[in-house]
Design a protein that fits this description.
This protein has 242 residues and is of the alpha/beta class. It has one domain (2-234): Rossmann fold, CATH 3.40.50. The chain has 7 helices and 10 strands. It has helices at residues 9-26, 41-52, 80-87, 109-123, 159-165, 184-189, 203-211, and strands at residues 2-6, 31-34, 62-65, 67-69, 99-100, 128-131, 153-156, 178-181, 192-197, 229-234. The strands form 2 sheets. A 7-stranded parallel beta sheet has the order 1-10-9-6-2-3-5, sandwiched between helices. The protein has a 3-stranded antiparallel beta sheet with strand order 4-8-7, covered by helices on one side. Helix 1 crosses helix 2 (41-52). The mean pLDDT is 97. Bound molecules: 2-phosphoglycolic acid (PGA).
């Protein structure tokens, strides 16, 4: 694991973006596993800025998002599709047909998980996987539990996750109860993981994930096994890891 600690978010986001841009410039057809949430927004802003300055193009890049809420239309303001459009996709030259996000409104969710998994299988090893961690240790929506899944699946969100995510919804009642998430397989197979966490509230779970035992109750602890993971933390997040 390559750990880099930054004084401020600006420097952290720039460094993570630089690492991604290097890969894309070396391989313009790179495949990217992307994440949503507050954490990667700054990284996406840096990618947009680099694109605007002509430092990178996404024309031949293909993306696979790690999760989507069940029941939200693409256009819903809290869907992850909408999030990606707002923070990244609308501002770069990525081809719409090369964007992949699970369809949370599919009439048959099991079939949708199979469809998404076969897309991932066809993609093979992702060049980069962007990840963060939830306060309960989840990675994507791979929630803590006795069983972890390698493949795309439908997940019932924990009440903890719904509460945390309710910040982006008008009320807790409106937070979907289920989601579709990529399993841990493609993430662990990615050539490189760019892992980002910011702020003191993540410090305790980061210590458990990276310094504790590998434990399905802390899905992020699996990341200790990845052979090429770059961990970008700010000084607050790294507090209990030193
Ligand atoms: P956050 O979410 O980036 O909004 O903290 C991370 C997660 O839940 O995986």
């Amino acid at each position: 694991m390559k750990l880099a600690v930054f004084k401020n978010e600006e420097e952290l986001d720039l460094a993570a973006a630089k690492s991604m841009i290097e890969v894309i410039n070396e391989n313009p057809e790179a495949t990217l596993g992307l994440a949503t949430g507050q954490t990667p927004i700054g990284l996406y802003q840096k990618l947009v800025q680099a694109y605007q300055k002509g430092q990178v193009t996404f024309k031949q890049v293909t993306t696979y998002n790690i999760d989507e809420y069940v029941g939200l239309e693409k256009e819903h303001p809290q869907s992850f599709y909408h999030f990606m459009k707002t923070h990244l996709f609308s501002h770069i030259d990525l081809n719409e047909v090369q964007i992949h996000i699970p369809n949370g409104t599919a009439s048959n969710l099991e079939e949708e998980t199979e469809r998404y998994e076969s897309l991932l299988m066809k993609a093979g090893q992702l060049d980069i996987q962007i990840l963060s961690i939830g306060l309960n240790g989840h990675i994507g929506f791979n929630e803590p539990g006795n069983t972890l899944h390698a493949e795309t699946h439908v997940v019932t969100l924990t009440e903890d996750t719904r509460k945390v995510n309710s910040k982006s919804f008008p009320s807790l009642a409106e937070v979907p109860k289920k989601a579709i998430t990529m399993g841990l397989g493609p993430m662990m197979k990615a050539k490189k993981i760019i892992f980002i966490a910011k702020g003191e509230e993540k410090a305790a779970i980061l210590k458990q994930a990276f310094k504790g035992p590998i434990d399905p109750l802390v899905p992020g602890s699996l990341l200790q096994l990845h052979p090429n993971i770059e961990v970008y933390l700010d000084e607050k997040a790294v507090k209990y890891m030193m």
